[in-house]
């Protein structure tokens, strides 16, 4: 979501600058089968954001006013209908209550996290199969494993969203790496797929990403894992391309944890990092926006289009109908490649995986 993304992810590691692209016109066929990255929120998160805005007003400059509004599952379904999309993946912002800029007592964090996750799950259950819900957990909090275990037994909970920028994760911190690896292993045992926003304000080097792939992702085994924002935090820079290359190399050698690994490309093609305040501009001037996008698509082709899924990050940019119309124009893929991307669904949306989740729910 819009927290801990792009420029303000660099500055705050938790809230983000949303962007600034307004694609006009209705979306044309083919439409994606699924939007793999959407957000609704209860009054709990809405009130919390307003509190954060009081402390960090600069972090909200340029953001859509929709982030300060309650949004229900019916709103998400309405946007899916406008775009001709069958299904949407709701990523709960329950992790937000662990945001260190405004500390809460551990028991209050746990209470609010559980309530926000319940809101998302209940909204998905009420959608007649149109929506699936991932609960939001900060894996470094004391309640993390308990929250994972609880939701692994609850109907309507399809997986876990980890926003590691919001959670203050640093790949250079061995203790945090160890904790995150243990969480991945627990998610694998609980058969709870993961959607992971990895990049935040901490250094995002090749060495650190290699640590993530070799030490953390490897613990996922065959668990479906979706890396958000095309492997970065939105937009494209040299670090984004290097991350994509490293993921591709890991997939090619069939590294542990990559069997069901996909990347969603939310906020990749439409975002020009050189125009966002607070983003280091070093190296961005070496290519035009079109050249950055072409380089990204070249990596996608090398990896294989089947490893990428479409996602809007609604409401960070625009509603899905406008978002995907803009993405089709901005992403330099062929008509055949776009049609293939539209057909892609993450492994956790497939019937075989749904059966595995059902088996977990039926365990004594």
What do you see in this structure?
- The protein is α/β, with parallel strands linked by helices and 364 residues long.
- It has one domain (6-12, 34-361): TIM Barrel (Alpha-Beta Barrel), CATH 3.20.20.140.
- 41% of the residues lie in helices and 10% in strands.
- Helix 3 (73-83) crosses helix 10 (320-330), helix 5 runs parallel beside helix 6 (174-190) and helix 7 runs parallel beside helix 8 (238-252).
- The longest helix has 20 residues, at 106-125.
- The model is unreliable at 2-25 (pLDDT under 50).
- Keywords: Signal.
- This is Amidohydrolase family protein.
- Residues 1-28 form the signal peptide.
- Residues 109-342 form the Amidohydrolase-related domain.
What is the secondary structure topology, with strand pairs?
Elements: H1 6-12, E1 34-38, H2 43-55, H3 73-83, E2 87-91, H4 106-125, E3 131-136, H5 144-152, E4 157-163, H6 174-190, E5 194-197, H7 206-216, E6 225-227, H8 238-252, E7 261-264, H9 289-303, E8 308-309, H10 320-330, H11 335-343, H12 351-361
Parallel strand pairs: 1-2, 2-3, 3-4, 4-5, 5-6, 6-7, 7-8
Return the CATH topology. TIM Barrel
Q: Helicity range of the residues?
A: 40-55%
Q: Which class of secondary structure composition applies to the elements?
A: alpha/beta
Percent of residues in β-strands:
5-15%
Low-confidence stretches: 2-25
CATH class: Alpha Beta
- The count of domains is 1
- Determine Rg (CA atoms, Å): 19 Å
Global mean pLDDT? 89
Distance between the termini: 36 Å
Helix/strand order = HEHHEHEHEHEHEHEHEHHH
Question: How would you name the CATH homologous superfamily?
Answer: Metal-dependent hydrolases
Assembly category: single chain
- Cross-sheet strand order for the largest sheet: 1-2-3-4-5-6-7-8
């Amino acid at each position: 979501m819009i927290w801990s993304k792009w420029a303000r992810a660099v500055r705050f590691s938790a809230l983000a600058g949303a962007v600034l692209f307004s694609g006009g016109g209705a979306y044309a066929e083919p439409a994606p089968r699924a939007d793999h990255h959407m957000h609704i929120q209860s009054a709990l998160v809405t009130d919390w954001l307003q509190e954060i805005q009081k402390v960090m007003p600069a972090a909200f400059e340029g953001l859509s006013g929709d982030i300060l509004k309650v949004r229900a599952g019916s709103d998400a379904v309405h946007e899916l209908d406008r775009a001709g999309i069958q299904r949407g993946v709701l990523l709960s912002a329950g992790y937000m209550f662990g945001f260190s800029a405004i500390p809460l007592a551990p028991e209050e964090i746990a209470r609010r996290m559980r309530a926000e996750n319940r809101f998302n799950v209940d909204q998905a259950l009420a959608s007649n199969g149109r929506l699936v819900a991932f609960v939001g957990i900060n894996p470094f909090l004391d309640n993390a494993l308990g929250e994972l275990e609880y939701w692994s037994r609850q109907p309507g909970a399809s997986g876990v969203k980890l926003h590691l920028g919001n959670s203050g994760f640093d790949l250079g911190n061995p203790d945090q790496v160890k904790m995150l690896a243990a969480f991945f292993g627990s998610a694998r045992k609980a058969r709870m797929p993961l959607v992971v926003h990895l990049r935040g304000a901490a250094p995002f080097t090749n060495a650190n990403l290699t640590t993530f792939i070799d030490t953390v992702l490897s613990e996922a085994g065959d668990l479906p894992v979706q890396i958000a924002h095309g492997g970065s935090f939105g937009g494209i820079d040299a670090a984004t391309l290097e991350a994509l290359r490293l993921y591709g190399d890991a997939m090619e050698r069939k590294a542990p944890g990559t069997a069901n690994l996909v990347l969603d490309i939310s906020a990749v093609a439409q975002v020009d990092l050189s125009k966002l305040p607070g983003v280091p501009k070093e190296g961005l001037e070496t290519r035009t926006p079109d050249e950055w996008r072409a380089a990204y698509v070249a990596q996608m082709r090398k990896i294989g289009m089947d490893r990428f899924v479409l996602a809007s990050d609604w409401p960070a940019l625009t509603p899905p109908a406008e978002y995907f119309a803009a993405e089709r124009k901005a992403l330099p893929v062929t008509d055949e490649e776009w049609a293939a991307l539209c057909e892609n669904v993450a492994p956790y949306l497939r019937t075989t995986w749904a059966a595995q989740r059902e088996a977990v729910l039926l365990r004594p």
